[in-house]
Amino acid sequence: MTNPTRFDGVFTALVTPFTDMAEIDWPAFDRLIDQQLAAGVRGLVPVGTTGEAATLDEDESLALIAHTVRRAGNAAYVLAGTGSNVTQKTVHATRRAVDAGAHGVLLITPYYNKPSPEGLIAHFGAAAEAAGSADVMLYSVPGRTGVAIAPDTAADLARGHRNIVAIKEAGGDPARVTALRAACGPDFVVHCGDDGLALPFFALGARGLTSVLSNWRPAEVVALHRAWAAGNRDEALALHDWLAPLAASMFCEASPGPVKRALAMGGMMTDRVRLPLVPLSARGDQVLRQAMAGAGLL
Hints:
The protein has helices at residues 26-39, 58-72, 87-99, 117-131, 142-145, 151-160, 175-184, 198-203, 218-229, 233-249, 257-265, 282-294, and strands at 9-13, 43-45, 77-81, 104-108, 135-140, 164-169, 189-192, 208-211. It is of the alpha/beta class. The protein has a single domain (4-242), classed as Alpha-Beta Barrel (TIM Barrel). The chain has an eight-stranded parallel barrel, surrounded by six helices.
């Protein structure tokens, strides 16, 4: 990888806004993207877990990716979620996303199947071949898929495929950053996948953050990374302390319910999610509002 700095900074795992009829709300999606770009977000990630990818059909997914590419122009890196637990479906989605102009693809570990390391290598390898020269970021989130990507497996994939250049690490363990860097080398990019752990991940060598919270508070999440990168440790710690309760509230119930409720409260979109998810409960709404009040946002 010749320029790992393209992954530096905050990438937003974009929510997919829905109308009251559960159709994609394109004007709301444009507002969301424009707010991200204005705040200085470096990357946009459509059709990931936060975008409710599991509830989107193939045409909707491709439309969201293509729309993000067009709306962002040259202002942000577009990392499209194309992973699934079916290899051929992942290969097909990856080819379509790259053809639509995505700079890279984000590939989740196959869920439910619980493949072996050899199965992961074959699965990700097939998708990497389909991506051509586009970047591939692996995505390890065992809490959702039941399978983590071992550092040695990531290293094998990076050695075997020049375009497998990064991993989104969302297992909740900062020690994984050190293990991944040791196994994969200093140019292999680690992205933090947990908002609340961004600062310790940066301290251990992660180059960026793929964020849920930045859908709602993009300027503050970007400021955290910029403060750290500039060596302003006290400022970074103060921002971390302010953001931490808000980040925790984003997962008081299944994401993206909480962040959609926060965005709805700000008039950005409805809080509609697609089944089997349901809108934030009264208890969840109370948790969110308490976090907002504590941060001086209510």
